[in-house]
Design goal:
The protein is α+β, with helices and mostly antiparallel strands. About 35% of the residues lie in helices and about 30% in strands. The protein has helices at about 15-25, 45-55, and strands at about 1-10, 35-40, 60.
Length: about 60
Amino acid sequence: MNKRVTIHWAKTCTPEIKERICNRFGIPRYTTINGETPCEIRDEDLELLRQVEKKGFIELRNK
């Protein structure tokens, strides 16, 4: 099952890091004007994505 989340990209996240995160989790590469990317994350990947959030590259938002 997948969970729908919105990722807000931190200003400190470089394009290289964003590309690696997108590749790993299957996140679309587009970003809205607000710096967000809506996507679906597999349940088994959610914990790892939360660790990426703790490192300060992204902020997970439930919209």
